[in-house]
Specification:
Radius of gyration: 30 Å
Number of strands: 13
Bound molecules: guanosine-5'-triphosphate, magnesium ion
Number of helices: 15
Shape: flat
CATH superfamily of the largest domain: P-loop containing nucleotide triphosphate hydrolases
Helix content: 40-55%
CATH topology of the largest domain: Rossmann fold
Strand order of the largest sheet: 3-4-5-6-2-1-7
Strand content: 15-25%
Order of helices and strands: EEHEEEEHEHHHHHEHEEHEHEHEHHHH
Largest sheet: 7 strands, mixed
Length: 474
């Protein structure tokens, strides 16, 4: 694997105006480069333009001072810290300069550092170095990305689990277990070559151990789904005929008057999309234009947009109006869609303050769904219950469970799936009485896939792709 030893630099804070901005360097030349432009306040009297000062900072101590350009002009007033290898983020020497925020100011300092010989870091290069230098494994490196992108406190905690090595630990445990099985098989195969009978007991034992591995992988994949929701948001779409109260529900969940609500059917014409934090679960919530058969030109386009949103959704909140009861239009809308098997549907009977013509269980018969909830956005009845049902539907206690939820990057999930497929093949082969050395081919395949997750066997290209998804400066 390529290991670049040059000194890299980047602005590590996000672009835009801020109170402070941080410039970070990593590499053995970091201190040398910075001592050509940074002068601690206590050295100001000794400073001569163009001369390096003989300042040796203590590791992890903050120094107050100034950045000077080549003509001896003060560029900024800063706090300077030097962190000596190996106990740093990258395991290399690191310097951080806390300057004033603002893009011009930070760029000026960055350019000075580049002139003195540092190279602009690629996206994710600091974290990549942490990985290459063995401070973290690949799963932990990818968790840094999830951490940065977390949208709620719970998403953050799930990403933290990855960073703390919970996923790596589980993957390593599974690899270890597979390696043990492989070595047991080798012993058995050797026996077989000596024309000794295969021990039926040991075949059963291997089968049971493979089943256990398979179950552990299934658990990981379940967590993956939940982690994805925590990371990307649960794609939730409110739909129904005009005037049922879709926008009222949207505003309620947002705790903000975001959508226009009127008694005129056809008020909402565009899709509205916002993130909502629902008891720690991020919802990517979409309000749609009411569906009706005889809509005008604008409404027809709105309905096309809605249709697409519905196809993409994880959760559909299909609203009915208790004051009108179930109408033909409701049936027409419901039947317009081919809901997918992994989509959850909650039927919401709104405006129960006005009338309650339809019984809950009848509704469930008319519109197959996961749950029926009666609410009134006017009186507030049923709203708390609805929120609880949504969270419970996707996390059924796991969210608060001891094990917690893991955020798996798409790459990691795919590799676990691949490994699980190998295990299933191995189990099938075993059940069909195939010889053990055939089975061991599948087990090696699974072992390799798991190894790619933590970065044991991985090529440079894959590594490049993984880290290119980071922002510059991380
Ligand atoms: N009585 C009563 N009125 C409600 C309730 N929820 C919403 N409304 C009223 O119903 C009307 C329509 O509400 P909206 O939220 O705009 O309905 P919508 O489904 O978004 O309508 P379109 O955008 O036209 O499709 C408004 O006058 C709301 O005040 C409720 O629970 N009870
Ligand atoms: Mg509306």
């Amino acid at each position: 694997m390529d290991v670049d030893n040059d000194t890299i630099v980047a602005i590590s804070t996000p672009p835009g105006e801020g109170g402070i901005g941080i410039i970070r360097l990593s590499g053995s030349d970091s201190l040398n480069i910075c001592s050509q432009i940074f002068v601690p306040s206590t050295y100001l009297k000794k400073y001569e333009v163009g001369k390096k000062i003989s300042f040796v900072p203590v590791s992890k101590k903050l120094y107050y001072g100034f950045i000077f350009d080549e003509e001896g002009k003060k560029v900024d007033e800063v706090l300077f810290s030097y962190m000596k290898a190996p106990f740093t983020y990258t395991r290399e020497d690191i310097v951080e300069i806390n300057a004033h925020g603002g893009i011009v100011c930070l760029n000026n300092i960055l350019n000075l550092i580049l002139k003195k010989g540092a190279r602009l870091a690629e996206p994710g290069e600091f974290t990549k170095r942490a990985f290459i230098n063995g401070r973290i494994d690949l799963v932990q490196a990818e968790s840094v990305l999830s951490l940065i992108r977390a949208k709620t406190e719970k998403g953050l905690r799930a990403a933290m689990h990855g960073l703390e090595g919970k996923l790596s630990g589980e993957v390593k445990r599974l690899r270890h277990e597979l390696a043990l099985i492989l070595s047991d098989i080798e012993v058995d195969v050797d026996f077989a070559h000596e024309d000794l009978d295969l021990d039926v007991g040991s075949v059963n034992d291997i089968r049971q151990r493979l089943i256990n591995i398979n179950n552990s992988m299934a658990r990981l994949l379940k967590k993956r789904k939940q982690g994805k929701i925590l990371q990307d948001g649960l794609k939730t779409v409110i739909l129904g005929k005009p005037n049922v109260g879709k926008s009222s529900l949207y505003n309620y969940l947002l705790r903000e008057e975001r959508a226009i609500v009127t008694e005129i059917p056809g008020t909402t014409r565009d899709l509205l999309i916002e993130y909502v934090n629902l008891k720690g679960v991020p919802l990517k919530l979409t309000d749609t234009a009411g569906f009706r058969k005889e809509g005008d030109k604008v409404e027809k386009i709105g309905m096309q947009y809605s249709q697409k949103a519905v196809e993409d959704a994880d959760l559909l909140l299909f609203m009915l109006d208790a004051s009108t009861g179930v109408t033909d239009e409701d049936r027409w809308i419901y039947n317009k869609f081919n809901f997918k098997e992994d989509q959850r549907i909650i039927i919401i009977l709104n405006k129960i303050d006005l009338a309650n013509q339809v019984m809950e269980n009848e509704i469930g018969d008319i519109f197959p769904c996961d749950k029926v909830v009666e609410i009134s956005l006017l009186s507030g009845d049923g709203l708390e219950e609805l929120e609880g049902i949504i969270v419970e539907m996707f996390f059924s206690g796991d969210l608060y469970g001891e094990e917690g939820v893991l955020v798996l990057e798409a790459r990691q999930g795919e590799l676990i799936k691949k490994a699980a497929a190998h295990i299933k093949d191995a189990l099938n082969a075993l059940n069909n009485g195939m010889p053990l050395d055939i089975i061991s081919i599948d087990l090696r395949g699974a072992l390799d896939s798991l190894g790619e997750i933590t970065g044991e066997n991985l090529d440079d290209d894959v590594l490049g792709i993984i880290f290119s998804r980071f922002c510059i400066g991380k």
